[in-house]
Amino acid sequence: MCGIAGFTLPRDATVDVKAEAEVHLRRMVTSLRHRGPDALDAVIQAGIALGHARLAILDPAGGAQPMRDDTTGVTVVFNGEIFNHDDLRRSLTANRSFRTRSDTEVILAAFLERGIECVSEFNGQFAFAIFDPRDLTLWLARDRFGKLPLFYSETSERFVFASEAKAILASGLVQPRLDRHAIAETLRLWAPATGRSFFDGIRSLPPGSVARLRDGDLSIHTYWELDLADERIDHGIPFNRAADELEALLYDAVRLRLRADVPVGAYLSGGLDSSLLCAIAQEQLGGGLQTYSVAFSHPRYDERGFQESVARTLGTDHRTTTIENAEVGTLLPAVVEHAESAILRTAPAPLLKLSHAVRVAGTKVVLTGEGADEMFLGYDLFKETKIRQFWARQPESRARGALFGRLYPYLAVSKQSPQLMRQFFGVGLDQPSAADFSHRIRWTNSGRISRFLSRSFVDALDGWDPVTAFLSELPSAITSARPLARAQLLEARTLLSQYLLSTQGDRMLMANSVEGRFPFLDHRIAEFAARLPDWMKLRGLREKLIVRRLAKGRVPPQVATRTKFPYRAPIAEALLGPCAPAWAKVELSRDAIDDVGVFDGTRVEKLIERLASTPAASDADEMALVAVASTQLLARRFLCEREISPLELEKVQVRAA
């Protein structure tokens, strides 16, 4: 993958304006060099400045960007992979001779022949910009699930875009200010979910969308949405046939994602999804798959026993990276710098270390298992929804509420007082048809972080509610969807695209110039899963039934039958006490917190005292600690201009066209 950047220029820009634009463009591309260290190139032409930081995966010799069509002048900058580019190239050769083997040229050719509608033909992960000088139109496009980021900003003089917000800020064309609404959204929904970034005036192009900028007018339309409508479900499909069809789709998805001119490895978490992908990839490669795992010194989070079992069974070339509690805190500033966001968990930190180990080992591309839980109902959230819907039909029933004891036996909820159980799991039982019913427990829990906000921050929101704002942007049909479908749609629009694929995924991978590929998020698999009856995915409280069918005989039995194990990392033990990093003593002080102004320093001081003295911290308090720490780091990193070395700027090759 790569980094892209650019901004509009007057068609008749003067020499001085172009010289100034070159400085802005160099700064933008240089800020993205972690995404593409293999080449830093840019072009300035009438109406547009385009830049590209390249991570060479396909056709290293011939796929240089920005790529321009000599006949029309149409120019593209592209971040990602079009996995079906070979098939598309064959369909386009009748009207065009290709000079490279790159998928970038396929995008250019497809656009010239079919217009922007060509995005619907792409099987891939992508964010690209195409400038068409024939009508002075700039097109932006993003893949269906938003695997790759794309940000933009409209100023009085320019339209600016980039793979990361830091590149827009580095341009000097947009002033850095935190977006209080994005912070409020994150404290409830785990990430900005209404197109915001963490910076005022910088927005994210929605997944599955295309934007057109012409004559200063920006329009955005959606070309793909996950359709979970009841009428699309094939209730007559036999389970065995469904499993066979899923197997064929998954095998093809893996086959396409193993295509590269560099070695492709795989992340191995020890869970069902990554283990199955590794088994299929090892089979298709005929051996030699390199697998990478993160392990924890703290046994509460560690899964290395399962990881090593899978690696031995499959015979992969396996490497394990172990992370200590103290490292989690030490890595958090780098996590925030690359994520460009506040976070509620420290889980991205170990993945940042893991991607570094992958790159040091010489691997540029890894397969990873994101998407399986969202498509095949793997999370506990879906089980909670099922129990809560059942409970809501008889809300006074103790027996129905006690089913949470089966889901979370370690909590022993059946032994707790009915009042405590109802207070936590019974949130919203009187509104089972509400659009956000499935997520009320999670959003209520994270919403407790708001207790620590400063009075001035709350007053500035003026009663604005992030959940209400998010729900108002959802299609009206969601209210009539079946409960599990509603839960899937909310999960896909919040945690999947905004957190798992971005903060915890792309950003931690590309921080070390590693590309992640997601076979379970091949749109053909997503559309197939949407047509399956829910019972094939979640039967009783047994998740991913059909995926387990494929894993049987391919991975160790203890992994194929294993219950979902949530991936987490240490929080209080990593940020407080003996393991506390040096930065924490500064940024978590009352004066520093009050200086930034998002949180209340006195309240946070009491929170830290409580966490430091309590062996078993509450989930809400730990999330609050991470939210405060990451917000402080975000402000310190991005609200002050960072100097870029002139030597670094000179590495960007700028040409005129």
Outline the structure in words.
There is one protein chain. By secondary structure, this protein is α+β, with helices and mostly antiparallel strands. The chain has 3 domains: 3-225, Glutamine Phosphoribosylpyrophosphate, subunit 1, domain 1; 238-370 and 513-560, HUPs (Rossmann fold); 572-638, no CATH class. Helix content is 43%, strand content 15%. It has 28 helices and 20 strands. The strands form 4 sheets. Strands 10-8-9-1-3-2-20 form a 7-stranded mixed beta sheet. Strands 4-5-6-7-11-12 form a 6-stranded antiparallel beta sheet. Strands 15-14-13-16-17 form a 5-stranded parallel beta sheet, with helices on both faces. A hairpin with a 6-residue loop joins strand 4 and strand 5 (75-82). It is globular. It starts with a strand and ends with a strand. The model has no long low-confidence stretch (mean pLDDT 94).
What would the CATH topology of the largest domain be?
Glutamine Phosphoribosylpyrophosphate, subunit 1, domain 1
Total number of strands: 20
Across the major sheet, the strand order is 10-8-9-1-3-2-20
Low-confidence stretches: none
Counting DSSP H or I runs of 4 or more residues, the number of helices is: 28
